[in-house]
């Protein structure tokens, strides 16, 4: 596997570090750092997104992790993690545009 791929055993301690943060801004800062040199798959991104209560945070996460995601063909599965139609449409457009 590519060196950036995050295996399930590697993912659990990273997820725990995210969960240990009390505030969404702290969680997002950590995810931003982690995603620079790690390639999270769709299932892992979905799990991380559950740590964020608001759609705008989930959207930021989804857009940030898209470029390095090894299974972009499954990215559509993340649309249902968003609550509002406008957010779902925005993510669909983002995916359809190839992450732009």
Explain what you see.
It is a single chain. The chain has helices spanning 8-20, 24-36, 42-49, 55-66, 85-96. With 100 residues, the chain is mostly helical. The model has no long low-confidence stretch (mean pLDDT 96). Helix 1 (8-20) packs antiparallel against helix 2, helix 2 (24-36) runs parallel beside helix 4 and helix 4 runs parallel beside helix 5 (85-96).
Report the mean per-residue pLDDT as an integer. Answer: 96
- The number of E-state strands comes to 0
* Total number of helices: 5
Outline type: globular
Helix content: 55-70%
- N- and C-termini, Cα separation: 26 Å
Structural class, please? mainly alpha
Uncertain runs: none
Strand content: under 5%
Write down the secondary-structure element order: HHHHH
Which value, in Å, is the CA radius of gyration? 13 Å
The main β sheet shows up as:
none
Structure at a glance:
With 100 residues, the chain is an all-alpha fold. The chain has 5 helices and no strands.
Primary descriptors:
100 residues, 0% strand, single chain, mainly alpha
Secondary structure topology:
Layout: H1 8-20, H2 24-36, H3 42-49, H4 55-66, H5 85-96
